[in-house]
């Protein structure tokens, strides 16, 4: 099915007030590889370049974006009942289910169709303000919600996040196949937790095994790759809600590719 096809019956429309120019979905074949971190870091990178950036947290049952930006509490609505996205310190617009819950520690135990509906509402019922680039943090895997995002949002590109573990090559294959079947372009592939650089001797350690990303990129004909180190500072900044203070430039190449889209 052509995602951008105007006859796609699943495609949701933005409300009249909202403006979003480009949509980039961030997916991973499996959980815990750092997809939410990469989403946040990419958003920060693009915001630093002066663009209006937004994050839609579509990882509905495990929303972690508000924590990384230290955004908590209730969201507000406009007079015509559109939800106003929260803003991070540097002005990134964020919409996440956690911002709509009375108690953000309560688990969300909804079934697929309700989750799918929520994604539609995050697109249609939110007052997205002049967004140049929206990054959509998807739940891990190739299930219901990623399918809904691909079918109902006008996705311009997909970033796939992996880790170096062996199993991942098979799992990445599933993610790539899903994106190809949706006729969407893969913007790039990010290997997170790729290596650890010893702060004392500078030696590079491959904690999770040797990198497979170059071979994977070649196999699937993906030209933009990024390798991110394991860095305790990353975990600390995410935990403290200070992701906007991140000082890594490994995603610059991916940002450049996104700017050329
Ligand atoms: N390169 C890194 N170095 C150190 N810690 C990292 C790195 N990347 C991610 N982390 C930490 O690993 C944990 C998992 O990361 P994250 O939540 O981004 O993964 P995810 O793939 O989005 O998970 P989920 O499958 O739950 O959606 C977080 O605590 C995060 O701060």
From TrEMBL:
Belongs to the Mrp/NBP35 ATP-binding proteins family. Binds and transfers iron-sulfur (Fe-S) clusters to target apoproteins. Can hydrolyze ATP. It comes from the Bacteria. Homodimer. The keyword tRNA processing does not apply. GO terms for biological process: iron-sulfur cluster assembly. It holds the Pfam family ParA. The keyword Iron-sulfur applies. GO terms for molecular function: 4 iron, 4 sulfur cluster binding; ATP binding; ATP hydrolysis activity; ATP-dependent FeS chaperone activity; metal ion binding. It comes from Sharpea porci. SUPFAM superfamilies: P-loop containing nucleoside triphosphate hydrolases. This is Iron-sulfur cluster carrier protein. Keywords: ATP-binding, Hydrolase, Iron, Iron-sulfur, Metal-binding, Nucleotide-binding.
